[in-house]
Amino acid sequence: MRDVLGWRCKFGVLGPSTNTIVQPDFEMMRPPGVTNHYSRIFTPNAQAVSNDTFMAGTQLIGDNTLDAVRSVMTCSPDYLVMGMSAVTFYGGAAGADAFRAKVARASGVGVSIGSHSCTAALKAYGGVKRIAFLSPYYPVANAEVRRYFTESGFEVVRDLCLECKTWTAIAEVRPDELREKLIWLNGDGREVDAIVQVGTNLSMVRLAAAAELWLGKPVIAINTATYWHALRQNKIMDKIEGLGRLLEEF
Asked: For 102-128, what is each residue's pLDDT tens digit?
């Protein structure tokens, strides 16, 4: 017997307790027969985050992840979707693999994480070699993201970190501010093949989809990439219009 509403797949979604963007983003992308079951990773809303404290704060989120995994597994999800991205980039490609394996061991089911999902998305578009990326992080974390993408075979031409001062402040960054950052990252238009946004509490799904039209290249929001990856890993091939080429074409 299958779940009456989640008859195609039940996703357990894991995200920091301070995150207000992942849950509505994933619901926006959810096709019929798929259900999302959110489990919040306890995260104190750190104030006055700095380059010195950012890594410690995100490591705490990583340390608390398995408690959230154990909680969500009580509803017997078929698959897990990680709605938290920073820690999935730490330690380069090997660190990403180790983090995914840790969650998979604890849960006994498959899991999509932000880092792997972004590289899968870039490869789906094809022909992407040089990228730029945007984050709400601090330079110390951007260095980890750069390392991951470099080890995954991409040249990082430039990156930008917003240095948001609290975890909840990430969700308060306005689309007009982000639009200016995307234009800067794009440079003269010839330097980068694609732009990636990381940081799951940054609202970028709709803006990234629109930016693909006026920049004429892939613009990948991490929430879109992660949910797309989870769907495709479970052989759910629905094409979802209006949220970017990744969901519409691949």
From this structure: 999 999 999 999 999 999 999 999 999
Instruction: Give the integer Cα–Cα distance in Å for 39 and 55.
Output: 22
The sign one gets for the Cα dihedral 149, 151, 153, 154 is: positive
Three-class SS of 161-225: ECCCCCCHHHHHCCHHHHHHHHHHHHCCCCCCCEEEECCCCCCCHHHHHHHHHHHCCCEEEHHHH
Question: Which DSSP string do the residues of 58-87 spell out, in sequence order?
Answer: HHHHHHHHHHHHHHHGGG--SEEEE---HH
Each residue of 165-183: pLDDT tens digit?
999 999 999 999 999 999 9
Count of domains for the chain: 2
CATH of the domain at 51: 3.40.50.12500
> pTM for this one?
0.96
In a domain, 214, yes or no: yes
The boundaries of the domain holding residue 214 are: 117-222
Cα 222 from Cα 239, distance rounded (Å): 18
User: Among residues 194, 182, 172, which one has the least CA distance to residue 125?
Assistant: 194
DSSP state of 241: T
Judgement on whether residues 204 and 121 belong to the same structural domain of the protein: yes
Taking alpha carbons only, the member of 109, 77, 85, 120 closest to residue 15 is 85
Provide the 3-class DSSP secondary structure of residue 111: strand
Q: Tell me how far the alpha carbon of residue 58 is from its chain's centroid.
A: 14
